[in-house]
Amino acid sequence: MASRETAIVEITPEVLLKAYACGIFPMAESAEDPALYWIEPEQRGIIPLAGLHVSARLARTVRAEPYQILVDRDFEAVIDGCAAPAQGRAKTWINGRIRRLYRGLFDIGHCHTVEAYADGRLVGGLYGVSLGATFFGESMFHTARDASKVALVHLVARLRAGGFRLLDTQFVTPHLASFGAVEVSRRQYHKLLAAAIVGTADFSALALERPIPGDEAVRLATAK
Fold first, then answer.
1. Is 61 exposed, middle or buried (0-12, 13-18, 19+ CB in 10 A)?
2. Is 132 exposed, middle or buried (0-12, 13-18, 19+ CB in 10 A)?
3. Scanning 71, 138, 188, 193, which has the fewest C-beta atoms within 10 Å of its C-beta?
4. How many Cβ atoms from other residues are within 10 Å of residue 89's Cβ?
5. pTM to 2 decimal places
6. Could you tell me if 2 and 37 are in contact, meaning their C-beta atoms sit under 8 angstroms apart?
């Protein structure tokens, strides 16, 4: 289900958090369209946090630490990367209002980034919203092989260490399905959300100022 604004109305970061708590999220038709759509899918994508599916090859990559994984260092660069054209995606839905809203959430500690660097250059990452014990994944990107996959492994390790109970991916893509993402009905999603949104979790349970070692990230993310 999607509803478009009939007029350009003021949406604040606080209003946005209330929308997430109700199970809806915004998208735009394009970067040029200032209006937002409120989305509530019939089938919602989630990644169960009880043991992420990580292939043996990817686990070796994460342990080898080809990228330096940092958290919450450069929100603007991450959203630029997520908005850039990529293979299979000629245009972005991230418009100016989306940028400002999520920057506002970042500034008040409810939006986080996981960033992958190679030789000091950002080559992949993701961002999402934390509320209660729920993390709502928004978008990810990569310009180097496996960079976004490595970032996702580190994200799940951090969520598990911090006591999160729900990782919402909005939709399921083949890429996310390879990690164990599944679709649940709207009714089931709301039950999961209601239980997780009132919980408490700590995104900074693992230190924000230093990278998690690759072997620790794999262990935390894949533990049953």
1. buried
2. buried
3. 188
4. 11
5. 0.93
6. yes
